[in-house]
UniProtKB/TrEMBL annotation:
GO biological-process terms attached to the record: chitin catabolic process; polysaccharide catabolic process
Protein's UniProt name: chitinase
Signal peptide location: 1-20
Residues annotated as domain GH18: 40-347
Entry keywords, A to Z: Carbohydrate metabolism, Chitin degradation, Chitin-binding, Glycosidase, Hydrolase, Polysaccharide degradation, Signal
A Gene Ontology cellular-component term: extracellular region
EC number, UniProt record: 3.2.1.14
InterPro entries reported for this sequence: CBM5/12, CBM_sf_5/12, GH, GH18_Chitinase, Glyco_hydro18_cat
Reaction it catalyzes: Random endo-hydrolysis of N-acetyl-beta-D-glucosaminide (1->4)-beta-linkages in chitin and chitodextrins
UniProt keyword Hydrolase, yes or no: yes
Record Pfam families: CBM_5_12, Glyco_hydro_18
Entry GO MF terms: carbohydrate binding; chitin binding; endochitinase activity
Length: 506
């Protein structure tokens, strides 16, 4: 992607020695058949230098496929690939191996991406760095066989677009790997990620594809970065995506005259930047834009929908500029991912669901006083729905919610009033959110001090006694009422839906 990054901030300092002999010869390696990607795939970029787990984040965001960024050499002139150019992150099962296996076990996969802004401006993109075509091909093969993947991405931009020797080496190396994969019955796709104008590829990007054609290199996906135009013009980012892709379609038609219009659309990918891009607020990709692009992408039958990057898909910096970890606009976490995720072939739109939490989850109040907490809701899958909120509190505690219904993602204030005569002790208040057939509950623990009240008068609970519905006992400073027949079930351990109802402290 075109976002600048500091190598010193992104790379770890530990060094692990990896010798060049670790790269298999292009005629060797394991050629087991990786599972091909679906004909239509949403594969957002994952920033691999952050220390986060790609499997955990993909699961939380509800996406099956990731484009993993980036692979490059440690320094110019090297032929050894590393994640982020860091010698502490070699191409091996020890680096992301378990995460990738987990993603694959869930029915998804990753697309390792070579290049990126930093590599393309420092000469560490592997085909710019390494002058031996066979070693470049061996690096590609090592990634394929180490992680058992079926697509590689080449992110080529800035200086790498003008390195004609590197462009030619890259395509020659890809052709060697494609021949190796074909000879071994292995599925392999190649995508080129390139900067674009709102009218299609600039000539420098088109030259990369022309060179591929001249080398007999198959390009399966031409993926355009539909952001960071830097032309000081007003932009409708969704409309610009459509016109850029149409321009690319026209360009591909001239490069591949034997392909039908449908086949050409199936070669196209688009990558968006959620929210404010690097240029600034004039180039802001909104949630409404995302919905428009999704519908357009489905109607055209394009191959790949992506975004830079998964870590940006949250609203933690509204009103700000472009950052690697937030979108700069008001949004819920994973809003863009939820819009784009059903694009993947065979996926179904996620079921609407939500969460309810109390923040803080505990507090204290003097008898006769009040305490408040914020009840927060969030979309966990699907779209935001109306949630009705209700509070259940023990005797002596009055609970009110304002408002009593919210749209998922909204908040309510829970106010708790302790009666003057309440006994000192700890009380549990429950807040249940209901939307259709779904309900989720959060609990809040309130400690009351300075209270009066009566001593426990009910008989103490006994484990050997049989209790029937309606009978009351005292246990650990609280009165409890049995909801139905029970024995040997300790009050306070059966949960709010269990047999014992907490009548409050005594």
């Amino acid at each position: 992607m075109r976002r600048k990054r500091s190598l010193s901030a992104a790379l770890a300092t530990a060094v692990t020695a990896v010798v060049a002999a670790g790269l298999t010869a292009i005629s060797g390696g394991t050629a087991q058949a990786a599972t091909p990607l679906p004909p239509r795939v949403f594969a957002p970029y994952f920033e691999a230098w952050t220390g986060e787990s790609p499997a955990a984040m993909a699961n939380e965001a509800g996406v099956k496929h990731l484009t993993m960024a980036f692979i490059q050499t440690e320094k110019k002139g090297s032929c050894t690939p590393y994640w982020n150019g860091s010698t502490s992150m070699p191409i091996s099962q020890a680096t992301f191996g378990d995460d990738i296996k987990t993603i694959q076990a869930r029915g998804g996969d990753v697309i390792p991406s070579f290049g990126g802004y930093t590599a393309d401006t420092t000469g560490t993109e592997i085909a710019d760095s390494c002058t031996d075509v066979n070693q470049v091909a061996a690096a590609y093969q090592k990634v394929i066989t180490t992680y058992d993947i079926s697509r590689l991405d080449m992110d080529i931009e800035v200086d790498a677009l003008n390195n004609t020797a590197g462009i030619d080496r890259r395509n020659k190396a890809i052709k060697k790997v494609q021949d190796w994969a074909a000879q071994n019955g292995r599925q392999l796709e190649i995508s080129y990620t390139l900067p674009t104008t709102p009218q299609g590829l600039a000539d420098s990007g088109l030259a990369v594809l022309r060179n591929a054609v001249s080398n007999g290199t198959r390009v399966d996906v031409a993926n355009i970065m539909t952001f960071d135009y830097y032309d000081n013009l007003p932009h409708d980012m969704a409309k610009d995506t459509e016109t850029a892709a149409q321009g690319l379609h026209n360009q591909l038609a001239r490069l591949y005259p034997d392909k039908s219009a449908t086949q050409l659309w199936a070669m196209i990918g688009v990558t968006e930047m959620p929210g404010v891009d690097d240029f600034g607020p004039a180039e802001t990709f909104t949630l409404a834009n995302a919905t428009q692009v999704y519908n357009w992408a489905v109607s055209k039958g394009i191959n790949t929908l992506s975004m830079w990057a998964l870590q940006r898909d949250n609203g933690s910096c509204p009103g700000g500029g472009a950052r690697d970890n937030c979108s700069g606009i008001e949004q819920n976490k994973w809003d863009f991912s939820r819009i784009f995720a059903p694009f993947t072939s065979g996926s179904k739109p996620p079921t609407n669901d939500f969460s309810v939490t109390a923040t803080p989850a505990s507090g204290s109040v003097a008898a006769g006083g009040t305490a408040t907490t914020t009840v927060k809701t969030a979309v966990t899958t699907g779209e935001a729905q109306k949630i009705d909120l209700a509070a259940t509190a023990p005797k002596g505690i009055a609970a009110t919610l304002s408002p009593s219904s919210v749209t998922a993602g909204g908040s309510s204030t829970l106010t708790l009033s302790a009666a003057p005569e309440i006994h000192s002790g700890t009380y549990t208040v429950s807040v249940t959110g209901t939307s259709g057939d779904l309900n989720h509950t959060a609990t809040y623990t309130l400690t009351v001090t300075g209270g009066g009240g009566n001593e426990c008068t009910a008989a103490p609970w006994a484990a050997s006694t049989v209790y029937t519905g309606g009978q009351q006992v005292s246990h650990k400073g609280h009165n409890w009422k049995a909801k139905w027949w029970t024995t040997a079930e300790e009050p306070g351990t059966t949960g709010q839906w269990g047999v014992w109802q907490d009548l409050g402290a005594c």
